[in-house]
Amino acid sequence: MGVRHLDTYIRETVPGGFIRINIEDEIRYALKFIAKKYGELKVTMTHECDQELAAHVTKVNALAIISNDSDFLIYEGSWKYWSSREIQLPTLVTMEYNRAALVRHLDLSFQQMPLLATLSGNDIMPFDVVKLLHYQLGYGDKFSKLARYIKGLGNGPLNEAAIRNILSAFTNSSTWFKQFQQSLDTYSVNINPQDGSTTGDLVQEALSKQESAFMYLLWLEKRLDVSIGLVDMRRTDFGQDYGQLQISLIVHMAGIILFHRKPRQPTQCSIIIKTTHHEPHQAHSYPVVYPRGIETPTLLDLLSKDPVVLEDLQTVKYQLLAWIASDTLNPDELREVPPQLRITVFSVYYLLDQKVLELFEADLLLQVAYDVAFETYDPKAVDYPRKIASRPFRLVFLYQTIYGLATKAYRLVGLDDENFRDDPPFDGVLFHKRYDDWSKGQCELENIEEWRIYKELVSQSLKLEKKR
């Protein structure tokens, strides 16, 4: 194991910063910034993401992969493997995993590591299938026991007969042969990641170059795997289930993505999501909602960076962005919000429209965004709150999840420019420190008053309640 000062190491070792990053941790925004600043940001699309990334870094002789995925211990290559979990900010000191030392410790070869990973259980070969073999080998230090078992198989090729012989020791070879082979193949770096342009589909080509697979998957009618960002879904603090709050935004975005598809199909999109506390994470089909009364441009036009096209479509871009959140959101008012705060206003408007937020919570989220974006305070001078209540604690998770979808909406309509950032202007310590005072009306709205375009939602709700 070794420790590197990441920023210095990139500067001194690879001028230009040639590095590939698997972004999946809480520091993904910082890592993404480094990737853009020192090299190229590549999003995996055509294969299982770990495999495509490992194949690409091997092909281009990249310096390192930064991740928190044990699969990268299995792949062979000259690149280094640095921990994303151990990165310390702002120094960017992290830990390096020594893959060669692991192979030596197990007394195996790199060619045998895919078999070790497969027999250990993974996303393709579930642990419930291979656990009988583990029981047969005995408890304790399972990887060393698996390594000795693999050594006992010899160094011969893993042809169909050899694989079926291994499977017969603990399960039905006819049922699991295909997945066993697929698992072994997943750890191969001898693949050629496809270029979307080879399909002849210009939209697919354009979407394959986006920084997110979101639009790409919806265009290709693939299942969209959505995390709710929460673990405990038993409470009903916010009036409805968390999953539905995301689904509503997604099906509206799908309507824009698929609007010009010929024929306009599908009318349903498949989303893998956990909808309630008692249901598993599973696929559901939801009707796509298409824009009405808006002259919707093609995806290629929406994503175009041509200055003339950008200027011509500004009005309709904001119309579509507002429509994704609510029929009541005024696109002209949204357009007047400063770019640094626009996605925050979009997010809180949506959550207020869905009757999730209290008005003071929307105001506080906007005020915190204002203070962070315009650096009106010293973050180090803010004391940690003594106690955090359940509702604001849960609210932060929900808000940041919705904000993430809002950034996808912003990209979809092509409003992201070179200064666009998808990390929210947010300070959790500041938010929780102020929450109790703001809930009691002890707040100052002077700095954000002109951008509180959502406050009429509360006034309208109060009028309806009085009529009842």
TrEMBL record:
<dbReference type="InterPro" id="IPR026784">
    <property type="entry name" value="Coact_PPARg"/>
</dbReference>
<protein>
    <submittedName>
        <fullName>Constitutive coactivator of peroxisome proliferator-activated receptor gamma</fullName>
    </submittedName>
</protein>
<dbReference type="InterPro" id="IPR029060">
    <property type="entry name" value="PIN-like_dom_sf"/>
</dbReference>
<comment type="similarity">
    <text>Belongs to the constitutive coactivator of PPAR-gamma family.</text>
</comment>
